[in-house]
Write a structure and sequence with these properties.
The chain is of the alpha+beta class. It has 19 helices and 42 strands. Helix 13 packs across helix 14 and helix 15 packs across helix 16. The two termini are 47 Å apart.
Length: 778
Amino acid sequence: MSPLRTLVGGVAHTVFAPVCVRASRPLFARVSARNGFSKQFARLQSSAAAEAVSDETEPVAELQSQEDILAQLAPEDSQRLSLMRNIGISAHIDSGKTTFTERVLYYTGRIKAIHEVRGKDNVGAKMDSMDLEREKGITIQSAATYCDWDKVENGDTKKYHFNLIDTPGHIDFTIEVERALRVLDGAVLVVCAVSGVQSQTITVDRQMRRYNVPRITFINKMDRMGANPWRAIEQVNQKLKIAAAAVQVPIGREDGLDGVVDIINRKALYHEGDRGEIIVEKSVPEELKDIVEEKRSVLIETLADVDDEIAEIYLNEEVPTPEQIVAAIRRATIARKFTPVLMGSALANKSVQPVLDAVCDYLPNPSEVSNVALDLSNSEAPINLPPYSNLPFVGLAFKLEEGKFGQLTYVRVYQGMIKKGMNIVNTRTGKRTKLARLVRMHSNEMEDVTEVHSGEICATFGVDCSSGDTFTDGELSYAMTSMFVPEPVISLSIAPKSRDNGNFSKAINRFQKEDPTFRVHFDSESKETVISGMGELHLEIYVERMRREYNVDCVTGMPQVAYREAILDEVNYDYTHKRQSGGAGQYAKIMGILSSADAENVFESEIVGGKIPEKYLAAVQKGFEEACEKGPLIGHKVLGARMLVNDGAIHVVDSSELSFRTAGYWGFREAFMRARPIVLEPIMDVAITAPLEFQGSIIGLMNKRNATITDTDVGSDEFTLHAECSLNQMFGFATILRANTQGKGEFTLEFKHYSQAPPQLQKDLVAEFQKKLKEKQN
């Protein structure tokens, strides 16, 4: 179940309804022993809460309404939180996220000089602190920082405090985006003015919806040839399915970009100074007045569709004031019905400052976001976490990193405050830790602090935990949800070149703890260590980090695909497990039907009259689940099997839980092989972007791989091809694409679904598996 949260408009006339939550079991997921993720609950959205929970009749807990929470907020907390924003910068690869963040830090005075991502001075952007990031020109890890922005409001200057996280664009590092959005209150979605909405933009949009994060949109690269902001806005409306309208009009375009016109207040903003740091307000140029009025009308019409107050004004044929428009944009943005669109060029230092003003105007502060946890001491009842500093501390560890002083744990404080020297308790493990050091992060730099209040993000050392753990001061026993963790899609065998001196194990353990999508297991058959991740680049980066950070050169094997096994037919089974070896033996008999299910493996029982006791049925289920972990066809996991037990027999002396577990295991395997077993392979959503002159050769490349082309977006100078292709066919595609596009093409892969593998591939996989079994027996 995806986490949900309530967002409120923060204006006097907004009506808040109490949230009713049924503490129903399907909301809670299992605790993963691998990475300690307690997927237990999270933020509930008042309008969707009734639909989000199951209809099971269990006790209903009424949560405190957001109106009451805000009414009881202390004046000092209200003042502090109203001037705070927790935001993330997200976008497709190479849309300019890190370049945009660099300008934000410069204009807020956080850094004294601007350095480019692939700059000639070889310094690199501030937020790309890893050597690998600077060499490759990509963001690998999300980086946190903070800054202050002086916003002029009605002649007065207000100092806003931003906690900012810059996230990667590659799908391989999607967990970095997941964990950032989990703890943020708002986001800036950066869209390229030339390419518009791309594949990873859609993925980021899906992640924002998963955590109910409102966003403003910034159309970057307006200085590039072929820039078309109106096409990009149309794509945001159509592809992301969210109402969007421009609040600015560009003055000039491409090389002639000079600034923007604020269409709400009808004033032109020009950028002067060496780095565009000086903003000069002038009247709207005569040649732009018509388009400004046209786009202003579009903005008001769009708002009328999503905001009742503007709708009433519009229907009365009145013109809303600038203050009313701003208030409506804020309400609709926080309700996630609308996204205001700004435009400019971060690289050309044009129109970045108005985005900071828009963050202050339109995105919520921490007190406008209702966060809900589970009270583990009270039957997991949902409970609000109001951002009051005088309440007991509750925080979430959302990111781990190995620093020079040990494990660095990033914490979002939801309630109370965290102080240096205080004791905090991990609610998952019950372990108590004294905080020796508390810091605020500025990329890879730190600033020591003595205390951090609710709504803020900080980091600490010496805390033994996993990503997603909840911490309290010991007075409370609360648990919050962790982030969504996608399953890995690619595996490699890995081994150190020379004898392991312990560094290989240290690296593997550290990377697993830091990144939940990086999985490691030891294959007992092949006697190999196998690493799994989100893509070739993902694993390549970790192999390279082992070499650089731990001096461990590794040898990697051929990539392995995460195949699945399934069945097509429905079969009856009748399996008896009998063993006699002196004394009490083993006896279990089960009968039933094995058939296919939709997606998950399902175990069902229709035993009546107590023919098989409940504890033995639970043992049969364990045997079934164990058999599904390693299928009998090619040794991969079984997907979509339904095992129904409707009859059986026990022996008074010889039957035991072990006997029925064994019967469940071997009964399933025997029936599985009779039910027309097949091999499923992962099908990936492929998006390839390249210059137009390479369109024919790329279509040819995809046809060779038996891909199904689903869509083609043709721009002014480049095109994007969308296709579905098996992962097995995409290995090494990066090198082939570079060779066929003179290094100008790029592509992304994202898992879509499982589909039946070609017959020849299935035969080859089965033959290879049987060969391994024979070798093992010999």
